Amino acid sequence: MHPREQTIFALSSGRPPSAIAIVRVSGPKAGVALEKLAGKIPFPRTATRALICDGKGQAIDDAIMLWFPGPASATGEDVAEFHIHGGRAVLASLFAALSAIEDVRAAEPGEFTRRAFENGKLDLTEAEGLDDLIHADTDRQRRQALRQLKGLLGDRARDWRREIIDASALIEAGIDFSDEGDVSSELIAPALGRVKALLGEIKEVLAAEGKAERLRDGLIVAIAGPPNVGKSTLMNQLARREVAIVSPHAGTTRDIIEVQLDLDGYPVTVIDTAGIRETDDPVEQEGVRRARWRAAEADLVLWLTDADDGMKGHQGSAPIWLVRNKIDLGDAANGKANAAREFRISAVRGDGLADLVEALVHFAQDFFGSVEAGLITRERQRRLLGDTAAALERSLDVNLGAAGQGDELVAEDLRSAVYCLGRLLGRVDVEDILDVIFRDFCIGK
Questions:
Q1: Is the model's pLDDT at 247 over the cut of 50?
Q2: 151 exposure class (CB count in 10 Å sphere: 0-12, 13-18, 19+)
Q3: Checking DSSP bridges between strand 18-26 and strand 266-272, what pairing results, if any?
Q4: Residue 366: enclosing H or E segment and its boundaries?
Q5: In which band, very low, low, confident or very high, does the pLDDT at 245 lie, cut at 50, 70 and 90?
Q6: Quick one: pLDDT at residue 248?
Q7: Of residues 46 and 326, which shows the higher confidence score?
Q8: Residue 135: is its pLDDT beyond 90?
Q9: Per residue in 165-201, pLDDT tens?
């Protein structure tokens, strides 16, 4: 039996132990599993209490079960759910009982969602949105993922694909009537007009700066500067926990320490880097090299100092904020530096930190802009939309460059555009990328 024809099961709730655990079963033997373990198949979509037992008649748990006959289910197949007590022993017994049923096996990561995709319950952009929703750490990430799951890009792509197919049909008809000049031009001209309008819509989507894509990964803020100026202390203050070693000795931080923050719903990764200075220690030299590299790659650099030394040693094009630390000791200098903004804080006492955090929130707001307006959330989506736009441009160039000739080439370019949108939605020739997408899902989803 092909693996996709087998029945699969997995824990679809949180890690045990827990008060309640949900075990989902999907496939042609889902009903059989209910009959063997609970003695009956309940009324569809109605929670039913039952004593579930293993193949030897030994009781496993007093549970709630649900039955979703396909195709009206999450995967499009017959689906059963067991809501049991979330102890490890209970789960182990239920898994053993399910595995004892012929052609029933444990699911692979993402296999439930992949079956839903293959059965037409969601397209590939919606599957990607579901994955993003599961991994969302902040409210804005959640909102963006939910919009994608509800068809933010998929619905537009389906509309574009349908209109290109309609235009292509007119082009094909014009080719069939090419010996009747008036008929051919009457069909092809409006088709190309619509193609031009569609190209404008897609280019407008591509013109967005990719901030919606960046929202998945978050804003990168590097804390940099010379040794022993309080970088690790500032990191701990922002994280509100001890994540970095605080020591009076220079060169304590030898590697890069990262912490993820949620600032007003925006994901922000703060990096504590090694103190930048000249040193003979080879380990510290490597730390300084990495610090310079990460600071250069960051979206914003907080250059921390307690003296009037400017920003010596910094390289990179990211905006720089000068943060003068240790105002509680009177050590923070008042000198000028070439920075976009300047702050005076005490990382130990917390003086000035509220203003710094507020400024970071405003920076994140400006950086991401209106991510609600962005349709593209992944590089794969941007690449395929770019290929679609290129094909549409070629179709218009062929017609304009050949004074109405070469209609077969126009039709071929439109077929290429339709194909690219089909790949975006996962409806044509995407077997090579499905494993990459669905392997990142958790087991049971």
A1: no
A2: middle
A3: unpaired
A4: helix 353-368
A5: very low
A6: 47
A7: 46
A8: no
A9: 888 887 777 665 555 544 456 667 788 889 999 999 9
Rounded CA-CA distance 37/217 in Å is 44
∠ Cα 287 291 293 (to 5°) = 120
Burial class (CB in 10 A: 0-12, 13-18, 19+), 194: middle
Sheet containing strand 257-263, edge to edge, reads 257-263, 266-272, 219-224, 300-305, 320-324, 341-344
Strands 7-11 and 104-106: parallel
| Amino acid identity, position 394 | R
Residue listed under structure tokens 């009982």:
97
What the block records as the tokens of 390 is 């290129």
Is 273 within 8 Å of 253 (Cβ atoms)?
yes
Structure token digits, residue 434: 């499905």
* 270 in Cβ contact with 276 (< 8 Å): no
Q: Across-strand partners of 53?
A: 59
Contact 29, 103 (CB under 8 A): yes
Relative orientation angle of helices 379-401 and 407-425, to the nearest 10 degrees: 170
